[in-house]
Design the sequence.
């Protein structure tokens, strides 16, 4: 950010090394799909990464690595609808890297949800041009997106050739460390040019067989009037494109509008998604109308979700305001009113890129307090994503020898555990157990989310139809994972991992007297388990009598089991040390103090201590260090 | 029905000419899919019509008829999962038509949602056997269905060969008068045998590209123990089947269980629907467990939806009870708690066959009073089916020169008008305009449904997010279709059809002084339009201030338009005749009296008077006759 206002993120120069971060921060989305803030002339390379993602648009691929078959489910990078570029007199296609940039301004307008870019530049022939684009991913009509591009021939006359494309050759290449995995998630189903000026591309994910259709209409205007243009079909394989040429005189300008309709085979109210996209584009309005309805939709959202400082707008407050707006903006682009009618969760990294593969962790817990009070219908929908995966969570619990439902740490399409169980250490070539799926506390988070939603929305119908069933299954899981320690006359939870990912197992000197992986009696987990059991009992009391009976029968919930829940909730072991400090987990106090100053002096930035220590052949497991709040989450 | 109890529809003999009606009445379903009550050995022919239908499972096909291309959207008959038959010692496969039936009993157990059939029979070789089947379409797990078949060798010993299949060769052939239309809606994607005893068939609808996967596991048991059996793959093209042989001694019995998992590409919480079906079948319980959970689900439904007579159970009441239970049973098999998570409406003929092509008319209006008070979450979901098609209804209004939203008389996948605009008179070979799409009163019905739901459920959130927008758009439509008659100083609605389908246009002697098709000033339509406008104004008052503002802005609803609504609602023309009788439509009194006695004497059953008159070259349009309640609907 080189400049800013309370409602705008503004960059006033082009910085190649900052571009990927900016693309993420300038992502536009509407809860249904999102597109990164890459330029319309950009291709995936070291500097740029255009990416378009569909909420819940997953695909699974297998890769053989070091003799082992690994399967990953990814949020698929959809065909790039952005391509819109031009050249003068058969010269090179526009590139920021080959021209002399005279001025540059990129602005993310948070209030209206529009990404703007204006560039003035001089090419090698000394021709000066000005370029301005406005882009939106429509917040009212979830299937639409649009861009308007204006070109000015400042000091030259000549032909300008416009190229508009839909690029289906894309792969998932947004995350460097996934690069050795298979990444070809799409196959082309159909590509054609409709009505002369409209591109149509339909692809299908290779395994999950989700069909995605994009139809894009490109039209030119001068002085507000349509310009007749002969479009030439320049399709190459899965990259479908049109080129057309128009003459400009010195000082003249031409405006190009590219309107997109995107439909998938998972959509409601369609016959076939290709037909839906074609119909939508044939009915689509012009950019200015789309901008108007889109801005109104954002105005409505801000009216409901906006947060402003009451105090005088000094420099500090204005900056804080921008940051607040930016966070809300991106949250609403992932979890929007459209989410209510989708089967999706809240991915850890939003729909902004490919990190964490678009998986759903426990992040609802952090956004619920904000959303619950403003539009609880959205949080209800995120909980329905969990409810639909309750049977899978029940199977997972059963397979692990527990009762009830065990939701996964990483959840995708089906709700199976998407966390890798092993990961390959590239240095040693060995497969190392990955304990992070043992973050069972996600099951406390989901229960907590249900309860928070119920408390705020007072939605007893949700509790009866969906919430209570999930909650009671989760309570049952906690009761079954807890074991009774005769010696201490306390219940314990062994073999889990807390929120702090620097600690996934005991160091060698503490491991010998234990069996099983991961840690014992993580305080956060144990306390939350008690909370779930208490609340589970409370929910049983809260339910209308017929529903209570229904669940007791459906779950074969006996008085005996209810007494067990009471007993566990009153006798859970919480480990303390140094006379009153809650231990993050059992024997945390026997870990070594970390030499903070030494490492800070040696490395400077020690934010990713885990990587530093691993590179030294060491592990954070040995030290009193924390990556995430763990015990502190309790307060 | 040859016998009955309050909770059972019982047939005690096999009646070939009654079979198709019985199959419809013995349909089992769960709101997600349904299967007609055909025998497991039956194939589609003159007597039997096995059919399985998915809620919202439509496909479009074009047919050239008399030089014109006609497109129809049908509810697709899915692969038949029922096939389960047998033969003795390489003899003929079992058929009711070739054996001597000693006893026959078919029972639809409404309380538990189970279809039972038991047959004792003797074949040409004098071998007596007993056959008993129990079938269910699971009411808790919407993807599952199951059959249990028991065979007893009463007076013989020998080999019995079991054949279990999934038949993907099916077409839509359930309605005689559609037989000249294309009816091949499915293409095979994959068929294979899994784990020796499991059939897997995946098909795709030809145009809408919905994928349907069926996985069926067949296992044999004797004395409660599994019987090892060598299954042989007998697949022929899209008919995938297994055959296995087991020896029976005189008096012995064998039980066959066939469990089905059915998933489609439109399902939630799946990666790919074939994988989902395979996973589900690998986890599937045995028949007895499925029966238990299924019966419990029905018990819960009856607890909520059951209706009993308070009086003494005399013969009359018991019969009325059965009829009541039967209607509720079938309604719940079409609109079940599973409907809440589906994008479907209530088809005129349920999921019980192919008549009306599974289209959605105005039938919600008749079932809402029942469902609203018992599980308004279902009616809310049916209204969401409409809401998702609001944009299509807006386009339809615009295309017809009106404002707001004009929902279609027949609605399918997208919400476009699915009613044929022309129909071919096979006698004359001429294409005749079909005015039935002019039953605009469906737009009053939808508004009425919204209001009823809101009144019963008090669901202001629904009204704000969805209901009001639909309602106001419908009100706007009525205001725009009404025209002002200067001479009478009244508003009129011209060119529509009322609910009575015997009247779709004026007879010749009344037509000359009119332009446009259909009828003028249908009283039901005009009064309901006034009702919609009144309630539209009331809803504007009811809405929270921010929502009111939101809609006025989104719809550009001005004070002027609101005043127009008021004016129309106070000055609508209702035509009366004979000094106080409401005319069904303008000039109804100028129609001829019908010669009831003559026709009754000539034809006996005159229920389909339209067909009788058309065969005579006449039309009901000339007479004072009614097929449906029209004016009476107002009271």
Sequence:
């Amino acid at each position: 950010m080189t400049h800013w206002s309370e409602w705008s993120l503004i960059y006033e120069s082009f910085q190649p090394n900052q571009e990927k971060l900016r693309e993420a921060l300038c992502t536009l989305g509407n809860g249904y799909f999102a597109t990164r803030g890459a330029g319309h002339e950009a291709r995936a390379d070291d500097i740029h990464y255009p990416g378009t993602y569909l909420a819940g648009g997953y695909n699974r691929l297998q890769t053989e690595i070091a003799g082992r078959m690994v399967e990953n489910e990814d949020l698929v990078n959809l065909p790039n609808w952005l391509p819109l570029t031009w050249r003068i007199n058969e010269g090179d296609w526009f590139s920021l890297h080959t021209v002399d940039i005279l001025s540059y301004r990129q602005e993310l307008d948070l209030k209206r949800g529009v990404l703007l870019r204006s560039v003035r530049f001089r090419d090698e022939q000394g021709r000066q041009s000005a370029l301005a684009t406005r882009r939106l991913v429509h917040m009212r009509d979830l299937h639409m997106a649009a861009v308007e591009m204006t070109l000015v021939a400042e000091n030259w006359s000549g032909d300008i050739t416009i190229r508009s494309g839909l690029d289906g050759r894309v792969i998932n290449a947004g995350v460097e460390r996934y690069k050795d995995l298979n990444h070809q998630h799409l196959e082309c189903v159909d590509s054609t040019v409709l009505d002369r000026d409209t591109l149509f591309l339909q692809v299908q994910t290779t395994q999950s067989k989700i069909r995605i259709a994009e139809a894009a209409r490109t039209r030119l205007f001068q002085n507000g009037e349509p310009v007749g243009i002969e479009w030439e079909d320049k399709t190459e394989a899965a990259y479908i494109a049109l080129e057309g040429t128009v003459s400009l005189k010195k000082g003249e300008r031409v405006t190009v509008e590219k309107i997109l309709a995107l439909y998938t085979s998972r959509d409601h109210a369609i016959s076939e998604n290709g037909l839906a996209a074609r119909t939508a584009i044939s009915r689509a309005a012009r950019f200015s109308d789309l901008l108007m309805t889109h801005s109104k939709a954002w105005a409505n959202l801000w009216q409901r979700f906006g947060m402003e400082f009451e105090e005088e707008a000094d420099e500090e407050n204005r900056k804080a305001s921008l940051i607040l707006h930016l966070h809300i903006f991106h949250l609403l682009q992932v979890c929007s009113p459209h989410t209510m009618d989708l089967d999706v969760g809240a991915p850890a990294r939003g729909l902004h890129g490919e990190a964490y593969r678009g998986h759903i962790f426990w992040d609802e817990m952090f956004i619920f307090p904000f959303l619950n009070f403003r539009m609880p219908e959205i949080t209800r929908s995120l909980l329905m994503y969990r409810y639909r995966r309750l049977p899978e969570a029940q199977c997972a619990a059963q397979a692990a020898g527990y009762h009830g439902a065990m939701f996964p740490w990483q959840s995708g399409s089906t709700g199976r555990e998407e966390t890798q169980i092993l990961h390959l250490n590239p240095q040693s070539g060995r497969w190392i157990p990955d304990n992070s799926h043992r973050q069972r506390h996600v099951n406390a988070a989901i229960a907590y989310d249900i309860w928070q939603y119920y408390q705020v929305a007072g939605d007893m119908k949700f509790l009866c139809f969906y919430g209570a069933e999930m909650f009671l299954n989760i309570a049952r899981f906690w009761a079954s994972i807890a074991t009774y320690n005769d010696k201490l006359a306390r219940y314990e939870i062994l073999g889990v991992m807390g929120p702090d990912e620097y600690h996934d197992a005991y160091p060698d000197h503490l491991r010998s007297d234990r069996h099983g992986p991961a840690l014992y009696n993580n305080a956060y987990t144990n306390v939350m388990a008690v909370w779930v059991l208490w609340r589970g009992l409370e929910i049983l009391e809260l339910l209308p009598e017929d529903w209570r009976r229904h669940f007791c029968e459906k779950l074969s919930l006996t008085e005996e089991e209810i007494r067990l829940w009471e007993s566990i909730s009153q006798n859970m072991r919480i480990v303390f040390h140094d006379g009153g400090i809650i231990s993050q987990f059992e024997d945390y106090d026997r870990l070594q103090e970390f030499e903070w100053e030494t490492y800070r002096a040696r490395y400077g930035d020690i934010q990713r201590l885990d990587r530093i220590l691993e590179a030294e052949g060491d592990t954070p497991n040995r030290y009193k260090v924390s990556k995430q709040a763990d015990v502190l989450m309790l307060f």
Notes: Chain A has a mean pLDDT of 95.
